[in-house]
Design a protein that fits this description.
The protein is α/β, with parallel strands linked by helices. It has 11 helices and 11 strands. Helix 1 packs antiparallel against helix 3 and helix 4 packs across helix 5. Keywords: Plant defense.
C-alpha cells in the first residue's frame, strides 16, 4: 500500500508540472497555445501520464480497493447515487484532537440549532485538510451518515434522494466563483445532509452560508511543532518516512529549548533552500544530513550558544568540526 501511495504522489507531481508548464506557455504566448500543445514533447508527457494512471488504476483492482455502498435499499439493478469513498486518514496527527471531537459533535447534531455548514478556515499549512480527513474517517461520522463523499460531486441531487443523510467534504475552496460552479448540487434548504469545506479565505465560507459555523484552528505550539517535525521527518521506532517534505523550501526551528539533536535523512527535503535556527539552547551540533542538502542556499543561526557557533564556523583560520556539513552553503549568517 505504501508503494502505491508513493506512485500516486509521484503521478500528482507529474500532472502538476505539466499544468504549470502549460500555464506559463499560455500566459507568455497566448496566440500559440494550440501549436505548442501539438508538439511531440508535450504529447509524450500526456501519454506518459495516461500510461501511469492506467497502471495505478490496475493496482487498485489488485489491492481490492473499491467504493463501499449499502445495496440493501433502493431499486434493484439501479446504480445508487451515494457511495462512501475512502480518503486516506492521516497517520500523523498532532495538536488538534479537541477540534476533532468538537466538530464531530456538531456534525452529528440534529437539533434545530445545528449548523448546515461547517467551514475550517486558516492560512496554508495550518492543517485544515488533515483535520477534515480525520473527521471524515471518524467512526462516529461513519455510523451517523448513510454515505459520504470527499470533494467529487458528479451529478446534481434529486428531490427524492435528498432525504438520505450524507456527509460531503469540499476541500480547499479558494474563491466564491468555485462555489458558484458547485452550488446547484446543494439546492435543498432543509437537507438532512451535512457539508464541510476547507478554505484559506473566511469570506468564501461566509458567502457559501452566512449561518454556518466557521472554525479556525489555532497554530501549533513550539513543542507540538517539533513533535510533528519529528514524526514526519525523523525516524520513529526504527522506521523512516522516505517522502519527508518534498516541496518544503524554507524551514525555521525557533525556541525549541529542549532540542538536543535532530536528523535529516537523505532525500527528505530535496528542495530546501533556506534554513534558520533560532535560540535552540540545548542543540549540540548540526545534523550530518545537512551535507546532503545540495539545494540549501542560506543558513541563519541566531541566538545559538557560542560553543555551537564555534563548531560550525571558522575560528583562527581553522574550520570547526561541523563546518564540513554546511561548507556548500553560499550564505551563512551567525548572530550570537
Amino acid at each position: 500500500m505504501s508503494t502505491l501511495l508513493a506512485e500516486i504522489r509521484e503521478l500528482a507531481y507529474d500532472v502538476e508540472n505539466v499544468v504549470e508548464t502549460f500555464l506559463v506557455k499560455a500566459s507568455s504566448s497566448p496566440g500559440k497555445i494550440i501549436q505548442w500543445m501539438k508538439k511531440r514533447k508535450f504529447s509524450r508527457k500526456i501519454e506518459d501520464i495516461n500510461r501511469k494512471m492506467c497502471l495505478v488504476f490496475n493496482q487498485f483492482d489488485d489491492c481490492n480497493m473499491k467504493s463501499k455502498s449499502d445495496s440493501s435499499h433502493g431499486t434493484p439493478g439501479r446504480l445508487r447515487r451515494f457511495h462512501t469513498f475512502t480518503t486516506v486518514e492521516p497517520k500523523i496527527f498532532v495538536g488538534h484532537e479537541a477540534d476533532v471531537d468538537h466538530l464531530v459533535g456538531l456534525l452529528v447534531d440534529e437539533s434545530d440549532r445545528c449548523y448546515p455548514l461547517i467551514s475550517i478556515c486558516g492560512m496554508g499549512g495550518l492543517g485544515k485538510t488533515t483535520l477534515a480527513q480525520k473527521i471524515y474517517n471518524h467512526s462516529t461520522i461513519n455510523r451517523h451518515f448513510s454515505g459520504s463523499a470527499w470533494v467529487t460531486i458528479s451529478q446534481k441531487w434529486q428531490t427524492k434522494e435528498q432525504k438520505q443523510k450524507c456527509f460531503i467534504v469540499l476541500d480547499d475552496i479558494w474563491s466564491t466563483d468555485a462555489w458558484d460552479s458547485l452550488k446547484a448540487a446543494f439546492t435543498a434548504e432543509r437537507s438532512v445532509s451535512k457539508l464541510m469545506l476547507t478554505s484559506r479565505n473566511v469570506d468564501v465560507a461566509e458567502y457559501v452560508n452566512p449561518k454556518g459555523l466557521i472554525h479556525q484552528p489555532e497554530t501549533l505550539s513550539p513543542d507540538q511543532s517539533w513533535e510533528l517535525l519529528q514524526l514526519k521527518a525523523l525516524p520513529t521506532r526504527g522506521e523512516y518516512i522516505a517522502t519527508g517534505f518534498q516541496k518544503l523550501t524554507k524551514l525555521a526551528l525557533k525556541c525549541l529549548f529542549r532540542l538536543q539533536s535532530w536528523r535529516v535523512e537523505r532525500g527528505s527535503m530535496p528542495v530546501l533552500s533556506e534554513l534558520a535556527i533560532y535560540a535552540c539552547d540545548s542543540m549540540k551540533e548540526l545534523p550530518q544530513g545537512l551535507a546532503y542538502l545540495n539545494s540549501l542556499r542560506k543558513l541563519n543561526l541566531t541566538g545559538m550558544p557560542p560553543e555551537f557557533c564555534d563548531r560550525v564556523g571558522v575560528v583562527n583560520g581553522e574550520p570547526g568540526p561541523d563546518f564540513y556539513k554546511i561548507a556548500h552553503v553560499p550564505e551563512i549568517i551567525t548572530k550570537l
